[in-house]
C-alpha cells in the first residue's frame, strides 16, 4: 500500500518528485467469549504495545518514467524485561555518577528495530488517473519482500537474543 500511494503521488503531480509514506500496524487479536472456543467474528483486543512499521520513499527525481523506492520495515515499542542476567559495572566514574555498580540486575527496555531493503525500481503507472500499480515480480509470499514474514522472524528472533545475551552493561 505504501509503495502504491507513493507511486501515485509522484506520478500524478508534476511538482512532486519525492514522496515519503509512513505506516504503523497495530497488533489485534479476536476476543474469545467466556465459555466459547471460537473467537468472536468482529470483536478484537490489542495484543501487545508493539507496532509494525513501514517507511517508503518513492523517488521520481531522475524522471517520472524512472521511479525508484527505498523501503524500511521495523518494529517499535516492543517491551522486554529480564529479571536476571544483566549487569551494570565496569564503567567510568566521575562526579556525576550516582548509580552503584551491580553484577546482576533487572533490565527492562523498549526496543525499536528497523531494517532497510536495497532500493528497487518501480514501473510508472500508464493509466490517465495514475492509479495503476504494478507489483514488482519478486514481491511474492515467502520472499525477502514478504513484509509480514520478515517482521515475524525479526519479532521472534529479537527476544531470543535479548533473553540469551548475558548483558554486561
What's a quick, concise take on this entry?
With 169 residues, the chain is of the alpha+beta class.
How would you characterize this protein structure?
Helices cover 17% and strands 38% of the residues. It has 169 residues and is of the alpha+beta class. Strands 1, 2, 3, 4 and 5 form a five-stranded antiparallel beta sheet that branches. The mean pLDDT is 91.
Topology:
Layout: H1 2-12, E1 18-32, E2 39-59, E3 67-82, E4 107-116, E5 120-122, H2 147-164
Antiparallel strand pairs: 1-2, 2-3, 3-4, 3-5
List keywords for this structure.
five-stranded antiparallel β-sheet; 169 residues; single chain; alpha+beta
What is the percentage of strand-forming residues?
A: 35-45%
Low-confidence stretches: none
**Quaternary structure type:** single chain
Q: Report the radius of gyration as a whole number of Å.
A: 22 Å
Please count the beta strands (DSSP E, at least 2 residues each).
Answer: 5
Cα-to-Cα separation, first versus last residue: 41 Å
Give the biggest sheet. Answer: 5 strands, antiparallel
Give me the number of helical elements. Answer: 2
Overall average residue pLDDT: 91
Helix/strand class: alpha+beta
* Helical residue percent band: 10-25%
Order of SSEs = HEEEEEH
The outline comes out as: extended
Amino acid at each position: 500500500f505504501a509503495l502504491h500511494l507513493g507511486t501515485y503521488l509522484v506520478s500524478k503531480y508534476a511538482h512532486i518528485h519525492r514522496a515519503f509514506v509512513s505506516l504503523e500496524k497495530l497488533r489485534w487479536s479476536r476476543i474469545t467469549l467466556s465459555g466459547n472456543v471460537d473467537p468472536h467474528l468482529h470483536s478484537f483486543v490489542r495484543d501487545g504495545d508493539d507496532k509494525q512499521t513501514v517507511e517508503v520513499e518513492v523517488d521520481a527525481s531522475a524522471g517520472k518514467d524512472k521511479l525508484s523506492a527505498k523501503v524500511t520495515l521495523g518494529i517499535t515499542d516492543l517491551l522486554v524485561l529480564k529479571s536476571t542476567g544483566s549487569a551494570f559495572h565496569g564503567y567510568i566514574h566521575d562526579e556525576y555518577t550516582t548509580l552503584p555498580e551491580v553484577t546482576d540486575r533487572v533490565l527492562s527496555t523498549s526496543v525499536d528495530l528497523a531494517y532497510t531493503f536495497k532500493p528497487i525500481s518501480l514501473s510508472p503507472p500508464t493509466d490517465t488517473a495514475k492509479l495503476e500499480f504494478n507489483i514488482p515480480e519478486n514481491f511474492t509470499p515467502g520472499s525477502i519482500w514478504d513484509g509480514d514474514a520478515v517482521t515475524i522472524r525479526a519479532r521472534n528472533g529479537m527476544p531470543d537474543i535479548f533473553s540469551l545475551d548475558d548483558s554486561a552493561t
